[in-house]
Each structure stands twice: as structure tokens, then as C-alpha cells.
Design a protein that fits this description.
Blueprint: E1 5-9, E2 13-17, E3 20-24, H1 26-36, E4 41-48, H2 51-62, E5 67-72, E6 77-83, E7 89-93, H3 106-113, E8 115-120, H4 128-140, E9 148-152, H5 162-171, E10 174-178, H6 179-189, H7 196-206, E11 211-215, E12 221-225, E13 228-232, H8 245-258, H9 263-278, H10 289-292
Parallel strand pairs: 1-4, 1-8, 2-6, 4-5, 8-9, 9-10, 10-11
Antiparallel strand pairs: 2-3, 6-7, 11-12, 12-13
Helix pairs in contact: 1-8, 3-4, 8-9
């Protein structure tokens, strides 16, 4: 593995939970967990020139997280999170905030040249400024880096369009999606009557993907590669909350693949990591060495 960066790009925000606020946002969660696997990660986002923004920067610094986070004239993002009886989060995501306005800078262009993998979602593309920055960043990664471009769809509150989803799937070579999102995407694309696995094969072929990761909550997860599928059951654990569990899954899987592990071994490590995060409060717990070695 080279010393190139594994980048999490998009929203950096505060999840305001019933018991207080915690730093959240899929890109930071992803980058933090990648760093725990010993790889060189970087989070790309934007915060406001306010106390919440400064606290995010201080927190990431304290975690030793590499970051390229611009300060912009918008408030730092917040999300009101309500946890239901099953421990499943419900989100109210504030609009027109700092991470909607991530600028494309010379520093970001330079980072792209040193990037081996980037993970981005649909939520951070709800505003044209961040959407264009994400697109330009991906397009600036040199082909000779043989990059992994991971589109981790995160359909929230209707903050997505068919056009954005299509363009992102055309740019990525790894798609991560959950069962509920797959149903929504299938309605958008006009094949609702087909079973989940067949939908995955269709998407894998249509967008010429290297891999498609499908997570189905308690019903396990799948990794589709051309001609093969890996299935892993979901471990039964005592759930504290599921915030950030999916991001830790992606981070563990991609880190393992980049370290040369097989799809099956990478999938197993992703499942174990995600299950551990579910037993902890918040999205960024410290992982035990047994998972990260």
C-alpha cells in the first residue's frame, strides 16, 4: 500500500442526540476509522466561523485526523437525532450550512493527485457548490493511481435527485447501498419488481462496478463482484446505537482491500467492526486492536 490518501469527503457536522451532541457526518466517520486501520486518511469538508466549527476542528486535531476543512461564511452543520425504541436514528438535517459550500481549492486539487481512494455520498451533493467540488475532486484523481471511488449512497429527507444518483454511479467503481435505499433507487430507475440480489447484479453490470456492497441490517450483508457474491450474517450484539455503523463497515472493508485482503476476509472484518460500533455510543469509538491488526 502506497502512502497515498484515503479521503472521506462531504458533510462534517454535529449530531445533536438526546443525551448531548456528538461529532458526526459520514466522511469524518469513514476517515477516522480508516486511520485506526493504520492507513493515511483525510477528511474533506467545511465548517462555519463559529464555536461549533472550532470545536469540530479541535476534536479532529485531538484525534490526530488529517483534514482539509475550509472555514466558510455559513453556520456549521447540525442534525437533530432522535433514537427510536429499536435504537434506530431519525434525522432532521439543517440546510444551507457550511458543508453545503465546500470550495474547490488548489490544496484540494493537490490532495486529489495523492489520493488512492475517496468515499462520498449523495447527501453532500444536495447543494451545487459541494456537488461540483466533489465532482472536480474525483475527476482530478490521476488514472495511474488506480483509485477506488466509493459512492456510499445516503438518502436522507429527500435530499437527492435521480440525476445526482446517476452521475455519482457513473463516476464510482464501488457502490455501497442498504436494502431500503435499493428499493428507493429501484423505483427511481424503473425496476421495482425484481428481487434485491437481481437488482444488485443489474447495477453492477450497468455501471461496470468493481464491487457493490449491500447491507440489510439484521439480515446480513452482501458484496457483489463480477461473477461472485459474498454473504455474511449480522452478528447479534447488544445495540447501544447504530449511528456511524455503516461508515465503520465501509472503512474496515476498504482498508482491508487496500491492504491486500480477499473480498471475503475484508467483508468479515467489516461486519465485525460495524457490530462493535453498534455496541458503543456515537459514531467514532476507539476500535480494539483485535479488529485493526
Amino acid at each position: 500500500m502506497s502512502d497515498k490518501y484515503i479521503v472521506g469527503m462531504g458533510e462534517a457536522l454535529w449530531d445533536v442526540l438526546p443525551d448531548g451532541k456528538k461529532i458526526g457526518g459520514a466522511p469524518a466517520n469513514f476517515a477516522y476509522h480508516v486511520s485506526q486501520f493504520g492507513l493515511r486518511s483525510c477528511v474533506v469538508s467545511a465548517v462555519g466561523d463559529d464555536a461549533l466549527g472550532k470545536e469540530i476542528l479541535d476534536n479532529f486535531n485531538s484525534k490526530g485526523l488529517n483534514m482539509l476543512i475550509d472555514t466558510v461564511p455559513y453556520p456549521t452543520g447540525t442534525v437533530q437525532v432522535e433514537i427510536d425504541q429499536a435504537g434506530i436514528p431519525q434525522y432532521d438535517i439543517k440546510e444551507n450550512v457550511a458543508w453545503d459550500n465546500i470550495p474547490f481549492t488548489p490544496a484540494l486539487e493537490n490532495l486529489a493527485k495523492e489520493t488512492k481512494a475517496v468515499c462520498f455520498g449523495s447527501l453532500a451533493q444536495r447543494n451545487i457548490v459541494s456537488r461540483e467540488t466533489i465532482t472536480r475532486f474525483i475527476d482530478a484523481i490521476p488514472e495511474e493511481n488506480d483509485p477506488l471511488i466509493i459512492f456510499d449512497i445516503n438518502l436522507r429527507q429527500g435530499f437527492f435527485t435521480k440525476e445526482t444518483i446517476c452521475e455519482s454511479m457513473e463516476r464510482c467503481n464501488i457502490l455501497k447501498i442498504n436494502d431500503e435505499e435499493l428499493v428507493t433507487i429501484s423505483r427511481l430507475f424503473g425496476y421495482p419488481g425484481i428481487d434485491l440480489q437481481d437488482k444488485c447484479w443489474i447495477l453492477l453490470g450497468k455501471y461496470n462496478l468493481k464491487m457493490l456492497i449491500l447491507t440489510c441490517g439484521v439480515n446480513g450483508s452482501y458484496v457483489f463482484t463480477p461473477g461472485n457474491v459474498s454473504f455474511q450474517p449480522t452478528p447479534v450484539v447488544k445495540v447501544e446505537d447504530t449511528v456511524g455503523a455503516g461508515d465503520s463497515f465501509t472503512a474496515a472493508f476498504i482498508s482491508s482491500i487496500l491492504k491486500g485482503k480477499s473480498v471475503k476476509k475484508a467483508h468479515n472484518r467489516a461486519v465485525e467492526t460495524s457490530a462493535f460500533v453498534c455496541t458503543q455510543a456515537g459514531a467514532m469509538p476507539e476500535l480494539p486492536a483485535s479488529l485493526t491488526h
